[in-house]
Amino acid sequence: MKDDILANLDNPRQLERLYRADKPTFKRTFKALYPELTDKTLMRFWDERLNFGSEEISWGTSKDMVFVIIASIVAGIIVKLPVMLSIDEQFFFTRNVGFVIFPVLSAYFAWKNKLSIGKIGFIAGAMVVGLVFINSLPDVKESDTLVLSCIHLGLFLWAVLGFAFVGGRNNIEKRLGYLRYNGDLIVMTGLILIAGGIMSALTVNLFDLIGLKINEFYFKYVGIFGLAAAPIVGTYLTQTNPQLVGKVSPVIARIFGPLVLVMLVIYLVAIVYSGKDPYNDREFLLIFNALLIGVMAIIFFSVAETSKATKIQAETWVLLLLSAVTVVVNGIALSAILFRISEWGITPNRAAVLGSNVLILINLLLVTAQLFRVLSKKADISGVGKTMANYLPVYVIWTIIVTFIFPLVFGFR
To answer: In angstroms, what CA-CA distances link 88 with 56, 186, 207, 320?
Structure first.
């Protein structure tokens, strides 16, 4: 989108086409470019147009609303399938929880992006393959490969949703937009769930005051449909009204970046004094890796937000230090898993953690090197986002391997 806007600065008709094709991305990209283009009359006009009435809430078209309502009902029905079809709930939700939300969200973006029949077929085919495969795995108790496959299937479906979001194109800006969408969706869904929780509590208690016990019915039907609908409604609101959380998400990233950095440094020092040993303590190693993944998510989101900013010197320093410290954390986790493999042999869990740590370490080193180049005035901040976006397919490939190949290689154990 950035290159398209720059190439059509003097072409009002083409700018209008770009805007109508993808309004949220156009607005975000324009805001990042505008400080450098204030001398152009046409750009000043677009700035006024995009900011005029930006506080108003758009509810989209009637077709949009109908789609959201139908998608929410479908998601709720999927949640109720175990009851309707007498399926064991633990079996169903362990394997199929990702299919409650990801298919309907993928359908939403496929519709909004007007994807071709071929791309829609690819998305549907990937979903069906995942659905058939995960439900065909033997129901083996304490199967590590089953657990790994179920966890990574969610990441696989997330990747399929990303394909629908970017429209199947190799577009770096759209990939970064997908990461921003995930951050915005978390914020918006959280707000919806808080508001829904308050309304549910009031409703149940008001009926209780007049002697009607609706707790069980309410949470079995109304509550469960509301939970399923929350991310769908959240997606709809963030896409039709990017200004709703467009200013909140960057603030959260800038607040939590330094806080996580301080916490991580203190935590590493505390590990030395606590005597905890990730080399021999399996539970501690799992928590350590969970911490690593959480920090990586914050770095990803922060980079996605910072890459569109203009005054980012302080934020870049924070990201560089956070990335460097996370490299240390990753190094400890990686050496610990290698030690455990050398001592007790390879297992599905150790293989999965080893592969994930290696991929994360490479990604961290690439991002850290790019951030250093930015601070050395040898590269632009947008290069950091490009580095991260270009690496995302590597994670997708690893997710596919763990989901579909690990159970076969390790004999479903």
So the answer is: 46, 30, 32, 48
